[in-house]
Structures are given as C-alpha cells and as structure tokens.
Amino acid sequence: MKINIFMTMCALNKVKGMFVKMKKIGILLLICFLTAGCVSYTELDDLSIVSTLGIDYQEGKYQLYVQVIQGELEEQEVEKKIITYFGEGESLEKAFYTLYTKSSKRLYLSHMDLLLLTEDAINQKFSEIIHSLLANNEYRHNFHVVFLTTSLQDWMEANIPSKEVNQLIQTNQQETSTTMEKEFETMMKELLIDRNTYLPSISYQENQLSLKGYTLIENYQVKENLNLEDSLLFNFLLNKVTKAYLNNANILENQTIITTQKNKINFHFLTTLNPNQDWISNTKQQLQDFLVRYQKQEYDILKLTEKVRQNDYSYYQKQNNLLEQLHFTFTFEVRENKNYLTGDF
Amino acid sequence: MKQDTITSFQYSTLLFFLLNSFLMNVGYHTFLVNRNVDCLIDVLLGGVLILIFCSFLFYFQRKTKESLLSYMNHHFTKGKRILFLLFFFLIIGFCMIYTFHTLSSFIHYFVLKDIPIVVITATLIITILYTASKGIPTIGKLSEILFYFYLFLFLIGMIGVISSLDITSLKPFFTSSTTNHIETTFTYFFGSIIPLFLLLEIANNQIIKEKKKKKLPYILLLVSILLTFTQLLFIISTLGIRLANIYEFPDMVLYKKISFLNLLERVETILAFQNLLNSFFFLVLGTYLLKEILLLTTKRKKEHIIDVLIGLIFFLTSSILSISSSTYLWSNFVFFFFLLFLFKNLTHYKHNHK
C-alpha cells in the first residue's frame, strides 16, 4: 500500500515536472512568435528604393515624381533599373497615395538622396513640403536639396539618376567653387534662423544638365537666382572656395575668417593665387558691392546678424535694425604662386 | 536572506537607470523648449538637487533598515497604511502607464515601424512581468550587465557624431532669464522624483555594503547626470538649438547622423536600445512595487493572478489613456509633496517608537 502511494506520488511529480517543462516551452514558443523580427518582415526585393523625389505645384495640385531603383535578376546578375512614378493630388499625402496605385512595391524613403524643388513648389507650398518631410520618420534628413529652374516633367522623363546631379554639384564644389551641396538639415537650420536660405540650382534643357549657381530664398519664397560669378563671390565670403578663377586670377587655396566687433564685420582672406596686380582692389570692390546690394534689400545673405548675436549678444539686443548698420571691411593676406621659369637665373 | 541581496554596484546601476528614465518620460525636448543654450547649466543645477534628494532617500534607507512597504506595514495603523498604499498604487501606476505608452510608441515609431503595436506591447509586458517576478537580486544583476552595454552604446553614439559637431552653435551663452533657469532645473528635478523613489523598495540590509564603495551610488548618479549633459551638449552643437527644438526625440536624429568613415551607418535602431533601457528599469521596479502592494493586501498564493492583472491593466490602459508629459511632471510634483508628508509621518512614528 505504502509502495503504491509512493509510486503514485512519483508519477504525479513526474506529471507536474512535465507540465512545468511544457509551460516553459509554451512560453518560449509564444515569445518566439511575438518576437518582433518574425512579424511582417520585408524582403529587400519587395521594396522600391526611392533615390529622387521631385515636387512641383501646378493649378492647385502637387505633382510628385519619384525615381526608384529596382534590382532585377538577369542572368545571375542583379541589374539596377531606374523607374519613374508620377502622382498628383491636392495635398502631398494624396499625391503619394496616387503614386502607390502605380507601384506594386512599397516605396522606401530612407535611402532618398535628392529632393528637387521647382519655383512654383517653393513659392506656393514650401513650408507645407518641409513640414511633411519632417513629420515622416522614414526620411533621414541628410538628402540633398536642389532647385530646378526648368520643367520637372522633362527632367523625370530623361531618367537622370540622382547620383549624376549630386556628382555635378560635388565636382563643381571642388573644381570651380561655384556651388555647394545643401543637405535638408542644413537648409532647415538656416530657415529657422530667419526664414532665408539658398539652394544650388540646376537646369535640364535640350538633353543637357547644367549648373546655374544659387537660388536665394526669402521668407519661403524664391527671391532671385545668383549667376555663377555671384555664386563664386558668395562662396568666397562663406569660406567655401577651394579652387576658383576670380578676377583673372587662379585661386589655388583660400581660407576666409569672419570676425565681428559690434557692427563691424571683417573678412580676412588667406589666399594663394597666381600673380595679378589689381586683384585685391578689384575683389574688394566686388565683395563690397555684393554685400551692400543685399544689405540695401534688407536680405541678410551671409546671416551676419546671427554671427553678431552669437559673438556679442548684449549689443545685438540693443539694436533695432542691425543689418542696416553693418559695416564691412576686407583684409587680404595673399601668397603669390611664382613662376620660377621666368625672371633672372 | 543572503539570496535576496544585491551588491552596492548593482544598486548604483539601478539608480543610474532610474534617473535616466527622465530622458524617455520627459525627454530632451523639455530642456530645449525655451530655445536657449543655457539649459546645459540647468541640467547640472537640476543634477545637484537630485543628488540632495537622493542623499535624503539614502539617509531614510539607512535609518529604517527595511523597505518602505515593510516599514509602513510595521509602523502604520491599518487605515493610514491603506490610504498611503492606495495613493502609491494610483500615482505610480498612472506614471507607469504613461511610461509604458511612451516606450511602446517610441519603439513602434522609431524601431519597429511595420510591427503592430499590440505585438510590441505584449512582448514588453511579458518581459517586464517576468523580470519583476524574479525579484530584486535578478533585477540588480540584469541592471549591472546592461549598464556596461549602455555605456558601450553611448560611447559609440558620441564618437560617431564627433565629426558633425559645431561649437559655434553653443553661442550665445548666459542669455536665459532666471524664470527659464528655474523652470528647466525643476523640470529635471521633479521629473525624476517617482523613478528615484522606487529605490526605497530595496531595504538597506539587502545591499551588500563595501567600505570602499560607500560613494558608489552618488558616483553613478553623477555619471547619469553627466551623460545627460554630454548628450544634450552634442545635440545642441550638432543640430543647433532651433532645429533641436522642433524634434520630440532629438537624440534619435543625432543617432541618424552617426557615421564611421562612411562605412558604418544607419545604426540608430541599435542605439535606440539605450532609450529602451532608460524606461525598462523604471517599469520593472514599478511593477515590482505594485505587485508588493497588492500582495500586502491579498494572499501570497495569488501572485500569478496579480501578474496577469497588472499585465492586462498595462495592455488596456496604455492604448486608451492619452497622458501628456506635463501631466506626468505634475504627478511627480504632487508626489514630491506627498513624500514630504510621508517622511514627516515616518519620523513622527520613529520618535514615538523611541
């Protein structure tokens, strides 16, 4: 009898142990299924990776052009294909919805590296576009923003990859210093200071992609386009010149140091160039004219008032119209690159 | 008894995480709301207040030698005990629901976009309940392990954004009004009251005291304050005060900028684990406290039912209730004065007892 009870107890304990084990396995299985990675995962093939987003605004409607890169397996090699989708709608969201009706794959915005904006899009809906881009967490805010002076439709029909545009800007940034890349985040920083910014501008005409300098934006509106010469001066003041050709002189190196003392702004240039007699006086005059021109228009092109605010806050606070009172001086420290093959031996 | 103990370091790391829960519950954007770089000083000022507050908590812990709940159980009358426990249960439960909602929304928005929030919520609840059920020693061990992991992620994050730093963004300094300073300093201080209060669940005799490590809790609190300061400094100098102000989680924007020689990029989802850890220990210790309160009022055998009950409350209320960070701050503010009242009562009892 005692043995029977003992055996029953043992059996019960075994069952209990098994139950505990089963419970543990059950919990583990449940966790496995709940583990986020297994739920609604997406294969790379199921995504359309957006490289360029072009936005225009015509007759009360947003016009969206989205360039996507799709990889297709052909003869055991993945071939990249660029496909352009078009969507239209009263709001940016609606325009995106219409885009989706044409795309079998999910549009993946995280790898976008170019945003093209037209004049109509900026003049009529710039703040809404920015708001929409900020609200969507999928964008990374390090894509480049470019102003397109010609038709967006022509551009998209030509299927120009974003890489080509970015390279055009990058090359000119290094070789001619007439332009500069502008990331979305940098643009945002500038807009939040005084609602003014500038964007590199390009055009596409007669199958030719070309650089057009800068486009100035004031109060979320296109103010004017700077030609390549003015864009170079602008970059020269901003310390963005590496190599350039200015006033018949070849600039080989440059560093611009901006210092402020109350309303006095001094630009000090450390420049290496090929010899040129009147270069300093000519350049000084050009720079002065350039800055005074925008000062008269009450447009703080270099955000100098912000610099004064950073360096001398108490002075900044006392001034009513600081931009008007700014006084510019220019000093040069030129190192001439001599031609050793000429002159006396 | 020995099994219920935690080391001084584990206890300090718990403190570290509890203070860090401010960053998830209230967040960096409250520092940046006045668009002023001076908020960096306010973090340090708030940190000093927090250190003073913690020294009071440590003092209380040393004197009572037992956890707050057991002390109340032994020294309070039944009516008073129920009143205090009910208040604890409601206000801490309320703050935890808020934290839980914030955390699950954060994961859904930043890390697992395509996953239904229900799945995230369920997974989180299971993890929190399981960890809380293991007791203080396991929580302590877990916090010690994760502390090193947290520091590693933090360092990776900060090294990765060094190239984007712009020191001129930190100018002009000392431009904030006194009101702004007070507002930000006390936001940091009051936002940390309830999380730090949870350390009173750990009795003094549960902590293995080592002579050389007496100041360790203060050191790790200081580390937490300095890490918050450093990250805020990096946020402002990288994004600029104006841009940082428009983001709810500027730290996540910072992580998105991380790049190691253009080879290692897009690591923000991994680094977001830091934010998860900040809230996790608050939720675990909070759940532990709620369970203890319920166990005090019910029979011990119903532990599993209590687990399910707490899980269900989290699951249902976090999706229904919409609580703002200012409500969370207000509840911390109320709780602070309630704590003063509680301590006054406790000292009164102690005096009578003597």
Tally of distinct domains of chain B: 1
What is the number of helical segments of chain B per DSSP (H or I, 4+ residues)?
Answer: 16
Low-confidence stretches of chain A: none
Largest interface: pair, residues per side: A-B, 27 and 25 residues
Please report the distance between the alpha carbons of the first and last residues of chain A.
125 Å
So how many helices of chain A?
11
Write the layout of secondary structure elements.
The complex is a heterodimer of chains A (345) and B (354).
Chain A: H1 2-34, E1 47-58, E2 61-74, E3 77-89, H2 92-100, E4 106-108, E5 114-117, H3 119-135, E6 144-148, H4 152-157, H5 162-175, H6 184-194, E7 196-205, E8 208-218, E9 221-226, H7 228-237, E10 244-246, E11 249-261, E12 264-273, H8 279-296, H9 304-311, H10 313-318, H11 322-325, E13 327-336
Chain B: E1 6-7, H1 8-25, H2 29-32, H3 39-64, H4 68-75, H5 78-111, H6 117-133, H7 136-161, H8 178-190, H9 193-197, E2 207-208, H10 216-239, H11 241-246, H12 250-256, E3 259-260, E4 264-265, H13 268-271, H14 273-297, H15 303-320, H16 325-353
Parallel strand pairs in B: 1-2
Antiparallel strand pairs in B: 3-4
Description:
The complex is a heterodimer of chains A (345) and B (354). Chain A has 345 residues and is α/β, with parallel strands linked by helices. Chain A has two domains: 46-226, no CATH class; 227-338, GMP Synthetase, Chain A, domain 3 (2-Layer Sandwich). Chain A has eleven helices and 13 strands. Chain B has 354 residues and is mostly helical. In chain B, 75% of the residues lie in helices and 2% in strands. In chain B, a hairpin with a 3-residue loop joins β3 and β4. The chains are: A alpha/beta (345), B mainly alpha (354).
